[in-house]
Structure prediction request, 132 residues.
Amino acid sequence: MKNHGFNVLVKTNSYAGNFERELCAFMTGHIGECGVGEEFINPIIKSTFEGYIEDELDDHACYRPVALDETNSHNLIIFFVKKPTEGQFKTLKERAKLFEKTRPYEYLDPDFRFLGIELQEVSITKTVTKLA
Prediction:
């Protein structure tokens, strides 16, 4: 678990577990160890986010740059090691809208809609308590 960084929360109207890795690859050009979404990588987009995307361990011991939002399974979270620039944030929005418009993923819910994104700063404080 990281102590500090940023998340980009991508909001949709569909269960994101069916497409979160593909959408992340389409938006950022980055995929996890599992390789899911490789066909959606755009090398120019990937280079735009080089050094910004962070992989985290999932519940299957696989490192990947995206996960479902624990509070709403229609949303996904893309992990960033540092704050995306304004240009990168604009690219993320444009790519998500393009994913909705072009529907490149054949298993995407027919009613899929991109609802927006927001930047979240992550900061975790650890407390040590002496017991004896």
